[in-house]
Amino acid sequence: MTKPDLPALNQRFGIEGHLSFKHGPGGLAIAEISNLYASANLFLQGAHLGSWTPRRQQPVIWLSPTAQFNEAKPIRGGVPVCWPWFASHPSEPNYPFHGIARTSIWEVIETAVMDDGGTCLRLSLTPNQAGKAVWPHLTPVEICFKIHNTLEIELVTRNLGSEPVTIGQALHTYFRVGNVKQIAIDGLDGYPYLDKLEGSQRKQQEGPVRIEGEVDRIYFDKGGDCQIEDPSLKRRIIISKQGSHSTVIWNPGAEKAAAIADMGETCYSNMVCVETANTAEDVVILAPGDEHKLSVRYSVENL
Predict the structure, then answer these.
(1) Is 167 helix (H, G, I), strand (E, B) or coil?
(2) Mean pLDDT value of segment 202-206
(3) pLDDT value at residue 72
(4) Largest alpha-carbon pair distance within the chain?
(5) Cβ–Cβ < 8 Å for 253, 213
(6) Are 160 and 138 in contact (CB under 8 A)?
């Protein structure tokens, strides 16, 4: 795996007072972003957002205190990019879980200061030889981050091949919460979901989603807003998305969290994953020449 050339990246894409490229944890290359509205950092491995903190707010994104930072392992927490399949490959269980994007080095292709003073960072992924062995399709993918008092992420996949291609994907965002057993996730009332803890049994949500123990569900929604009400941190996180009709909610609970080496026994209580996805019944079939945009916007309000 070719390591990013940090001096060259800073010369070409660094923005004084906004963005610089550095060695982060484990020696991994990161982009550090700071502007009038927020601070953030992004690992080039996986195009993996590690943090986003609006000014006068506590961190919104959760990163595991025992996360492992190396070239062979996905990072626990942040915003992993699951692509071009979600969870296990539909026909090849030995292929990488959640696809090839999470441990691939993405190429920086654009940085800019936005008209309103926010910061934009765009990256692309061209699979290496190992990636091409499991994903031989001509489907270039780009991701764009806009760092402001809101966080916007857009993942764009194009099919340059001659045959249709099926894409499963997710922005697997880990949100920081005060106490997961006190939060309420609104916006999914009345929608069906697959309960992966009960053999993907199909159920229907009644009222807000509450986390009492381990949760692993795929909701089939209409692409509307979802909100995390967090009385402990006295804030509301608003999740607005496009190009997605499925939302994954995940928390490992105490027992499973204790068995996850890069998570820790008690960390589950301060995080919840609310993932903007195309998965299960919501996978995307890209015809030749087509493109698909999966995008999300996060904002925070005080309660």
Answers:
(1) strand
(2) 98
(3) 81
(4) 53
(5) yes
(6) yes
